[in-house]
Every structure is written in C-alpha cells, then in structure tokens.
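CHAIN AND CONFORMATION:
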Amino acid sequence: MKKLFSLLLCGLLFTATLIPCFTAFADDDEIFSDEQLEYYANLGLEGTTINVYNWGEYISDGSDDLMDVVSEFERLTGIHVNYTNFESNENMYSKLAGGGVSYDVIVPSDYMIERLIDEDMLLPLDFENIPNFEEYIRDDFRHLFYDPEDKYSVGFNISYTALIYNTELVDEEPESWDVLWDEQYKGKVLMFNNSRDAFAIAQEVLGYDVNSTNEQEWVEAAELLAKQKDAVEPVYVMDEVFNLMESGEYAFATYYTGDYLLMLENNENLDYCLPEEGFNRAYDAFCVPKCAQNKAGAEAFINFMLEPEVAFDNAEYIYYCSSNKEIEFDEESSLFGEDAVYPQGELDCNEFHNLPQNILELQNNLWSKVKSGQLSAQSKQQEQKIYITSAIIAAAVIVILVITYIRKIQKNKEQDISDLYGQ
C-alpha cells in the first residue's frame, strides 16, 4: 500500500513538473496557426544547422515579453541556429571575403548587397521556399536599386541616419550636421565607427554626392573629418552608443532613428533631427552567401522572419521600419504613427551605392588616417616641422660638402703652384 501511495505521489509530482512545459508549448502554439505549424514541421530539415550572421541588437530575443525568434524557429522546424553578430557592413564583408567561414543567412545593407552581387558572392534565392515574400513584402521593398530583379535578397528593415542630441546639454534645437564640429561640445560627441556613414556626413556638409567617384572630394571629406577630430575629439562607436547616450554624458550622437526611440526609453531628455543637408536611408535585407552549407534551411529562416507574428515582435524589439506590410498600420503596434520609424511626406534622403574599387581603397586608406590622427592639424604641423628640419639638415650637409670641395680645390691649386715654383 505504501509502495502504491509512493508511486502515485511520484506520478503527481512528475505531472506537476510537466504542466508548465505543456502550458508553455500550448501558449507558444497559440501564436501560430495550425497551417503555419504544419508548414514548418513538414520542411524535413530537422536535425540540420544554419549559421546566421546579423547586426547586433537586430532580432527579438525574448526580452520585454516578446518572442524569442531564434528559439521559436528552432522549435517549429527542428533546425539548430548558430547566431552571431557583426558591427558594420565592412566587417561582415571582410569576414566573407577572407574565406574559411560558412554563413547561411547574412543581413547586409543596400550598397553592400550591390557589391556582393557584383563580386558574385551571393546565391540566387529559391522563392518557392519563401512564399511569404509574395504575400507580405511591401511594394516599396520590391525591385530596389541594389537588387532590381529581387533575385538575391528579401527586404528586412529601413533605417534613417539621424542626429540624436541631449536637450540637457544642447541649448538650441540643431538643424545641421555642423554642430558636430562645434568646439564647445569637445569630448561630448559620439560619431559613427564605420567609414561609409562617417564620410557621408562630411560629404553632406560639403554638398558632395555620397556616392561620388571624384577622389578629391573624398580627400576633402576626410580632411573635414580630421578637423572634427581636432575640434571635438569624437568617440567612434557603434552599438556602444546606446549606453553612452542613455547615460546623459554626451551631447550628440550619430545613429539611426529607430535606435533613438530605444534610447529615449532610458533617457527622456533625448531628441533627434534629420539634418537639413540630407541624411541616409538604408535598406537591410536577408541574403544567402555562396559559402552557405544549408540553403534550404536559410530560406526557411528568411520565410519565418516574414511571418506577421514574427515581424511584429521583431519590429517591437528593434524599432525599425518593417518590410512586412501588415506592421505599419497595425494600431496595436507601439510604433503606429511614429514619424521616427515611418516618416511621412517627401524626404531629402541619400542612398548608398556600391563604389568603384579605387574609391573603396581610397576610402579605407583615408578612414585609417582620420582615426589614427594622421590627417589632423597637429599631425600636419609635426610633419611640416619634420620636413623643415630635414630640409635644414640637408641644406647644411650640402653647404659643408660644397665648402669641403672648394677647400680641396684651393688646396690642390696651392699645391700645384708650389710644385711649379719648386721646379
């Protein structure tokens, strides 16, 4: 009898431990329809793995009562996801171009997608495996300049470059990028730590095309960035901008409008503007690189990211304009009617395009010099001093050699005269 009672008690305890698990799965299953669950369960990809390479802070991770997107995908498909982050398009490109890596899904921006296509580094997508593309992708995310045939990419988000500022440290509402060179904000400026965005700001201030192929214009933009380094000693950041700007210690930051809204939640004294000289509109999209080992799994992941339930929670997490047409006009969204994410009217936007190889190399070289201080006024003064000192030393050496030569000639002449009269 005691054994029977013990068994019953153990059974009850075991059942009690399982109830939360069953409940969790039941709650999760309520997110998706039976049709969606059946679709992903029947892909036949369980036990495989995909490697996803994405921007930092760019996918809902289960915080704030939102969906853990990667975990949900793994649960529905049985596919394991190795998920890693990059900080910039250039870093991502270097990793791919260097070889020895295998990524199945990458999320580059527009101009980088152009470059990857030009260099034959992407695989064409099989849209039979991405049915949500036709059903949910917004019209303004189709046939874009970087992939006009929608052959290699599926749109994810749009972001806008903004000037974010701390109203406690800035007296007047800024309208121009010029404030980033104002010496009164020395040590209080956070600047993009990627060359393309940083150069674009300087080019916009100078009135130049951000896609210029004129080498001299890139040199002048670099010189302007060097002047900024001398004047305000900017801190070059990417995702670190969140903590630094939220701390209230910095007056200005260059980053993206959606990220401004995230910062605002932790510092109500922040505001933003879209500078009058112009600003960048960036498209990020899903692609499959040629190094992919599980293309079908990659396309399943891309399709999953377009599910309305996934796109909704992802937009709530990253605060960017979603490519899913269901999201912008969903009144339950916290971003509904938010101009920072869904700006209205005509915008004075720039869009980055791929650049010729000579410009890419020049840009990289100039950016290294800007950050290292080689183009700064102080550095130039030091170089000038070195040149002047070297010239003085060279002149002195020449003078000494000339004098020595003249004396030698005179000595030889005197010797010749002495020899002549001696005879």
About this structure: The mean pLDDT is 89. The CA atoms of residues 38 and 76 lie 9 Å apart. The two ends are 146 Å apart (CA to CA).
